[in-house]
Amino acid sequence: MLWTIFLLLNGLLILVLRYSTRTRQDNEPPLDKGFFPWLGHALEFGKDAAKFLARMKERHGDIFTVCVAGRYVTVLLDPNSFDAVINDTVFFDFTRNRNQLMKKIFSLQLPSITPRAERHWMERHFQDVSLSKLSSSMNTHIQSLLLSDQHDCSPSGWRQDGLFSLCYSLLFRAGYLTLFERRDNASAVYKEFRKFDDLLAKLARGSLKRGETKTANSCRVRLWELLSPNCLNGGSGSNSWQQSYHGFLQEEGVDAEMQQRALLLQLWTTQCNAGPAAFWLLGFLLTHPEAMEAVKSEIRGLARPDAALQSSAITLLEAHSTPVLDGVLSETLRLTAAVMISREVVQDKILLTASGKNYYLRKGDRVCLFPFLSPQMDPQIHQEPQIFKYDRFLNEVGSSPGENRTVKDKFYKDGNAVKYCTMPWGAGSSICIGKDFAVTAIKQ
Questions:
Q1: Quick one: which of 319, 377, 401, 411 could link to 305 by a disulfide (CB 3.0–4.6 Å)?
Q2: Do 263 and 379 lie in a common domain?
Q3: How far apart are CA 56 and CA 36, in angstroms?
Q4: Whether 181 and 293 share a structural domain
Q5: Shared-domain flag, residues 266 and 316
Q6: 288 and 259 share a domain?
Q7: 131 and 253 both lie in a single domain
Q8: Contact 296, 288 (CB under 8 A)
C-alpha cells in the first residue's frame, strides 16, 4: 500500500514539474501559467472565455501564452496579424483539434476524408445554382411551416411562444426539410437536437455530469436513428442533398456506421446557428424602433420582381440589394458571434505580426484567435462596441437627393485599415461555406 501511494505521489510530482517549470524564452509571447500547476487557467477559461481573455489582453497585450490544463495556448488578438496564422498550412494545422472534437462530441471518425475533398463537395452544394435551389426550397418550407403552425392555433386564432423558440424551431425545421428532405419527423429531430445541443459545450470540454452523460448519449443515438438512411421514406430520391452527401461518403470509403454518424455532424453544422442568429436579429429590431423603421422602410421601397424572377421563386430580398438589413445583421453578429479559431503548431514557428515584431511559437502548442474581443469588441475599431448601432456598417448618406446608403466595409485602428472588422464566419480557407445559405435563411 505504501509503495503504491509512493508511486502515485511520484508520478503526480513528475507531472507537476513537467507542466509547471516552463519559462518564457527570448522572443516568445508573454507567459501566464496561473496559480495552479498543470491546471493553470483552465477553470477561468472554461467558465467565461471572453471575460478571461479580455483580462489577459489588458495585462499582456494582443499576444500572450496561457496554460490551460497542461496545454499551452498562445492567444493572438491583433486582427491584422490573423492571416499569418489562418493562411499558413505548413506550420499550423486545424484538422487534429477538429478530429478530436468530432470523436468526442459525435463519436465520429473520418480518417479517409481530406479537408480539401470535403470542402470541394460543400462548395458544389452551397454555391451558385445549388445555392439558389436550396434558398428557394428553404423559402418554400418556411412559408409552409408558418401556415401549418397557424392551423394548430387555438380557436381564438392566437398561439403563444417565446421568440427564441419560434426562431430556432422554424429555421431548424425548414433547414432540415431542405437538406434532409424528410417529411415525417422534423419536430422529433428538433426536440432531440435541442437537448443534445444544450450539452454540446460540456461534451467538448469533457465536463458532463453522470446524468448529463446519459442524456447526451441517448440523444445522440436517437438522432442517429432519426437521420438514418433506413428511415428515408419521404425524401425526393437520389437528387436530394442528403443522398448526394451519402454518395460522397461512400466514394471516400466511409463505412455505413460512420456515414450515419456523419449526418448528425452535418445537421449540427448546418442548423445550429441560423435560428439563434435570427432571434438576436429580431430581438434587436424589436428593442430599437429606429432600426426597425429603417429596415421596414427599405423593404417597402423594394420594387416587385418581374414575372421572370417570380417564376424562378426569387424573393424580394434575393432580387434586390438590402444594405440596411445586411448592416443590421452584421451588427447583430458582431455583438453575438463568438467564434474561436484554433490551430495546432506542428513545427517551431517564428510568427511575424503586423506590428513588425517576431514571436517564437513552440511545436505542440496551440494558437487561438478570438475575433469577438478584437476586432468585434475593440473600441479602437468600433466606437462604443457594447452598444447596438443599426447603422454601424452603413456609410453616411451622400449629398445627392434620394441616394441610397451603402454597406460600410472600411474600418481603422490606430490610423491603419483593418482587414477584418468582424469575423462571425471565420476567414481564409476555412471560412464557413454555408455562409450565404445561412444569411439568406435568416433574412427570409
A1: 319
A2: no
A3: 16
A4: no
A5: no
A6: no
A7: yes
A8: no
Q: Are 239 and 294 in a shared domain?
A: no
231 known member of a binding site: no
Nearest to 137 by CA among 216, 241, 63, 233: 241
Same domain, 292 and 250: no
Query: Does residue 273 have a known ligand-binding role?
Result: yes
pTM of the model: 0.90
383-414 CB burial, b ≥16 within 10 A, e <16 = eebeebbbbbbbeeeeeeeeeebeebeebebe
- On whether 404 is known to bind a ligand per the annotation, the reply is no
Q: Is 300 annotated as a binding residue?
A: no
Query: How many structural domains comprise the chain?
Result: 3
d(CA 443, CA 127): 17
366 is annotated as contributing to ligand binding: yes
pLDDT tens sequence for the chain (444 residues): 555 554 555 555 455 545 557 999 999 999 999 999 999 999 999 899 999 999 999 999 999 999 999 999 999 999 999 999 999 999 999 999 999 999 999 999 999 899 899 999 999 999 989 999 999 999 999 999 988 866 666 666 677 889 999 999 999 999 999 999 677 899 999 999 999 999 999 999 888 999 999 999 999 999 999 998 654 444 444 568 999 999 999 999 999 999 999 999 999 999 999 999 999 999 999 999 999 999 999 988 886 655 554 444 446 566 678 999 999 999 999 999 999 999 999 999 999 999 999 999 999 999 999 999 999 999 999 999 999 999 999 998 754 444 578 899 899 998 899 999 999 999 887 899 999 999 999 998
Helix (H, G, I), strand (E, B) or coil at 403: coil
